[in-house]
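anyone seen this seq b4? input:
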Amino acid sequence: MNCKKIFDAIDNLVCEYVSIWEDVCNIESPTNYKKGVDEVGQYFISLANKFGWNIEVFQHNVSGNVICITMNKDAKNPPIAISAHIDTVHPLGSFGKPAVKISNGKIYGPGVMDCKGGAVAGVMAMHALKECGFKDRPIKFLLQSDEENGSKTSKKATINYICKKAEDCIAFLNLEGHEQYFDGKACIERKGILKYEFRVYGKEVHASYCATEGANAIAEASHKIIEIEKIKDSNGITCNVGTIKGGSVSNTVAGECSFEVDIRFATDAQKQWIENLMKEIAEKQFVKGCTTKLNKIGYRVAMELCDRNLSLLNKINVVFENNGLTKLSAGKRNGGSDAADVTAYGIPCIDSLGVKGERAHSTEEEADIDSLAESAKRISSVIYCL
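predicted toks r here
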């Protein structure tokens, strides 16, 4: 099936959708700012209303609301889901006013790459398909609201809703952005994430008695951190202690210390191993008189390599090749993603089909404007031809 007519429609929509890209990124929407996240969601609802598409809103009282926009709701062929998240990591005001700037073929601002660019590419692809009269299958456009903290805010309610809405889909295209180094690849593997808090308790005394009566919680925590930081396998498990706080004043033995650990793993077997190791380290006493409480404060499943995702990649590469688009090789990434939950749910999934950029999660986040149309062409060709 030839997509030339659809691709021509996308090329004609570029100026309109770069303006939309600018609009949605100027609406600041850090994960914990429900008002901003919902404002972005409402922007996409307004677009969907203009096209007459079906809209469902999963209301949440803490996280932003999840939006499900469906085109061709009553079509009989199997549906395809496309998804992007509309929350960002940047605190309000990080980019000044206006938040978005465009210069020399690039767009700069909060979420331009991660992941509002993908959301804009998704609706752009649907717009082009509608202009070309496509009515053959339902398209479910799912906008996630608390992806950046692994749906911790909603206690997984948002991503569980998305998986449920997509369970009948033959493909799930996750529209996370990708960096230059990942160009030409499709993500079919991602590491999972475990986050722990260690709370270490000692015994406070005057510093002059530290050798005989005190139990220094900071010293105990330091021994544990050294054990944890030994684990650095780029292809397997990595452990990073990112925050630490403890003690009161320098002339008092610290009675309390806490630190947080971010752990990345590639398989469920590695997850089990690290869970056991964290318990062992927490229970082991290095400084006499100290005790430790271990709290699991975050978890994201790994996107493990599986046959259904490999099969989907092979199928979409046939579509790309037949329509003059570069085939994508299988790739893996270390960061967490909703694609992992979707894969674990049993839905065929390809990740990182959004826009190309650099420096996500920084105040220098940028994306290539030309990559918006490229992403929309990939999305629309899969929907039209698969």
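The chain has a mean pLDDT of 96. The two ends are 9 Å apart (CA to CA). kinda curious what u guys think
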